[in-house]
Amino acid sequence: MDDPPKPPAGSALDTVEEGPRTGHALPVRLAATTLRHPTVDGLRARFGASVQHHAISAGDQHVVYVEAGRNREVLRWLKQDPAQHYDLLADVTAVDFGGDRPLEVVYQLWSVPHRRALRVKCELPLAALAIDSVEPLWRTADWLEREVYDLFGIEFRGHPDLRRIMMPENYAEGHPLRKDFPLRGRFTRAEQTRRALSQDPVDQYIPTELATGREPRIPGDVPLGESEVVEPSPEPEG
Amino acid sequence: MGLDARRLPGGGTSARRDGGILGAGGPTFLTTKLDFVVNWARRSSLWPMPFGTACCAIEMMAAAASNFDLARFGMERMSFSPRQADVLICAGRVPYKLAPVLRRIWDQMPQPKWCISMGACASSGGVFDVYSMVQGIDTIVPVDVYIPGCPPRPEGLIYGLMMIQEKIREETLAEHRVLRAEDPLRAGVPEADADEVAGLTGPFGNSTRQNRVSDVARTDLADRPGDRKP
Amino acid sequence: MAKRTVEYSISRTPEMGAAGGPAHGPLFPVDLAEPELGAEHMLINIGPQHPATHGVLRLVCELDGETVIKVIPHIGYLHSSFEKLGEYRTWNQIVTLTDRMDYLAPLIYNCAYVMSVEKLMGIEVTERCKVFRVILMEMERIFSHLLWLGTTAIDLGAFTPFLYAFQDREKIYTLHEKYTGARITTSATRVGGMMADIPDGWIDELKEFLRVFPRTLDEIDTLLTTNGIHLGRTQNIGVISAEDAVNCGFTGPNLRASGVPYDLRKDNPYYDYDTYEFEVPIGEHGDCYDRYLVRMEEMRQSVGILHQAIERLPGGPMDVPDPHVTLPSKTDCMSDMESMIHHFKLIMEGVKAPPGDCYFAVEGSKGELGMYVVSAGGPKPVRWRIRPPSFVNLSVIPKLAEGHLVSDLIMINASLDIVLGEIDR
After folding, report:
1. What is the C-alpha separation between C109 and C87, in angstroms, rounded?
2. Chain B nearest-CA residue for A165
3. Range of the domain at B102
4. How far is B165 from chain A (nearest CA, A)?
5. Would you state the pLDDT for residue A63?
6. What whole-number distance in Å separates Cα of residue A37 and Cα of residue A118?
7. Would the CB atoms of C166 and B65 count as touching at under 8 Å?
8. What is the residue range of A160's domain?
9. Residue B65: what pLDDT?
10. Per-residue confidence at C36, pLDDT binned at 50, 70, 90?
């Protein structure tokens, strides 16, 4: 029976505290020398100081921090420039770190012809949670941005239909995925139940929909409410 | 909670004096025979209303498919219209956004009707003790049978359906008025009142407070009534 | 566009009229001078409880007669806040949440999530684990497509393929159960490995399934692929062009049916997918029929990948032998102090991840399934984001269904292969 291995110098608890060793080899697809991403150089050349920071995350994932005010310009260039051609917007999401840290809006981009990914992040201060919508560039952003609005409260300027998507329209407890929102909601369960069941059927429809559904009208009828006395309408020809 | 005690089998003996549709006088040979036939007919051809939302709905579909075969219980005709259904099988988690829909479907079902809460999420909220999830549909609709599991196996669903059949077997037309009582003014109103729902949010109800990993680090013993102190 | 192999056409016999119906006149003479009734549009609400919406989806349609002018989907009727809940769970505890999102292919979600976390932590799993995860993911692809096939056929009124598909799904349920103990909510993966090694006889049972399954697929093929009703209901319905598909964010079989050859297994390969021999079926017309054909062929290709993966399944450990990540064996714990401490820390505090973020996407059965995890260096994530393929696929339905009939709307909805658990999260 072998002796148990000697614990390394220092207390055994110290090594456990560190967490997993980061020395494992990663299945990198980019060679070790290509820690330069072809897009990032182009971005820096074109947008200069708006490209605030470039980082490599999780071994080979390139992240670019861009000034929030110019996000639509940058993303338009990333989409339309033939050398970049990020035609697939994989994801739009936001991250709330808690405390007073700004929220980050994260765009995951993929270029189908070039087979490259890029992550673009824009930081938004808590006092000014508004950013331009990229829905005119990618229709994908339609629902993805609505979800970010619903769950984080970030307003997307220029979005054609910015309203809640997951929570009901009349949800009054706030924006759930923010860190200051408690897991079980702000109201009591009794209040949540009461509010859920107190809705009128009409509340379930948005104004665009309500504009459609009307009473059917038969041609020749006088619409209700227009006159007290219904005069007989002239006989239709034919 | 949530269960109308009068609908428990054999409950409310004083109601028999009142008389159901057969009038006063208590059970006779003829009424028990009639009960037998009516109950047999009702339990052998229950038309389920599948209110399937999530994973439990897939197990419900598997129960209806060939391997487990609900057709042998007379339940292969899944009635998607509540007007023609007997049993509401709520299979899956129900968020607050869906709760009025569930209540409305329940109200639209004509009597006699029963309700099965299939799965942990429908019975108690399950894994989801979160802002958007109803913590048990018995706060919304009256439930007859709860089927635990995440998801329960199709055999579990079948066992629950058989329990409904047992419940129907115990019914009697003499208690018809009591059993089938439904206050039309309570349509759209949740089944449980505010106090009962508030009782769901007791100190042990929050599943995030259970180990050191959670933000609230409680390493002392939880002080619950009935705990044996060392 | 190329002529299809099978086209739906009505034979023009002398008895047939111009519209394809019988040539005799209508029963009552139509007076063209009389104005048409009901020129107003009608608002119809489909759902959220409806058999044909494949979950709690609500479609509010503006109809002109039977023709859909506009359809507005409403979701959120299954919102279970997985992402919020994930912030209160350790990395390994989240695995149990992942099954409940896409309950039609739970192992794909399990694998995609831990692959993302492992990438964040810089962990490379063992060869055996890689190949086994490939086996599980391809098996789940078949599993999910079978359900899609059954429910789509049943939307058309074809009940038999539903029963055949579910019969084969039962075999996969049995495989799930033999490995994990649960039929649907498998929770089979852990950070750094799997919950357990492969039980004896499991691979043989999988091989038996693979021997029998192509025959079922052929039977369903015979029932549907050249069936006139099916063709009439699916050809030229819900057409979307390749550029629109990419711009709208379509991924997976929906995108490939429009002609865009984007498959993450080929374009951004993981777990040595570039060493497996398989083809990715690409459609041409971008309609429901092509989506059907693409998925049918994908199932056959998955069978091929499974055979290859079973051949190359190596021995060795299933879990990474790193005590900071994987629980040490009980024998070690009881005999070795360091192992006991590792075990204690892993159970009490969970695996810790370094600060950073990672977006990892796999080719799920419904499309690009991305998991974005953000860590601030601790046992729990700061943010766990799921990029759900069905969410983005569904958002295109207003564009696809415009101008079609209501019954076509149902067919389009079915052909998108959506699962509300993942849409609403």
Report:
1. 17
2. B97
3. 5-201
4. 31
5. 92
6. 9
7. yes
8. 36-170
9. 86
10. low
Contact flag C76-A166 (C-beta cutoff 8 Å)? yes
Q: Can you give the pLDDT at residue B27? A: 67
Residues of C in contact with B153 (CB under 8 A): 183
User: Is A30 in CB contact (< 8 Å) with chain C?
Assistant: no
Q: For the domain that residue A144 is a member of, what is the CATH number?
A: 3.30.460.80
CB-CB under 8 Å, B206 with A189: no
φ, ψ of residue C194 to 5 degrees: the values are: -120, 170
Question: Which distant-in-sequence residues (6+ apart) come within 8 Å of A64 by Cβ?
Answer: A39, A40, A43, A51, A53, A54, A118, A119, A120, A121
Q: Is B76 in a helix, a strand, or coil?
A: coil
CB-CB under 8 Å, B103 with A193: no
* B135 with A189: Cβ contact below 8 A: yes
pLDDT of C302 higher than 70: yes
Tell me if chain B has a CB within 8 Å of the CB of C313. Answer: no
Q: Per residue in B74-107, pLDDT tens?
A: 998 888 899 999 999 999 999 999 999 999 999 9
**Residue where the block lists tokens 């919406």:** C53
Q: Is the alpha carbon torsion for B153, B157, B158, B163 positive or negative?
A: positive
- Domain ranges, ordered by start, for chain C: 82-322+353-424
Name the phi and psi angles at B23, rounded to 5. 85, 175
| pLDDT higher than threshold 80 for residue C219 | yes
Mean pLDDT of C355-371: 94
pTM above 0.90, yes or no: no
ipTM for the predicted complex:
0.86
Structural domains of chain B, count: 1
CB-count burial class (<10 Å; 0-12, 13-18, 19+) for B112: middle
Instruction: Give the total number of structural domains in chain A.
Output: 1
C96-131 residue pLDDT tens: 999 999 999 999 999 999 999 999 999 999 999 999
Neighbour-count burial for A8-28, b at 16+ CB within 10 Å, e otherwise: eeeeeeebbeebbeeebeebe
Residue C131, token pair as written in the block: 């190949």
Choose among A12, A143, A209: nearest Cβ to C392: A143
CB-based contact A199 B192, cutoff 8 Å: no
Give the domain CATH number at B119: 3.40.50.12280
CATH number, domain C82-322+353-424: 1.10.645.10
Q: Tell me the nearest-neighbour CA distance from B205 into chain C, angstroms.
A: 15
Q: CB within 8 A of A8, min separation 6: which ones?
A: A15
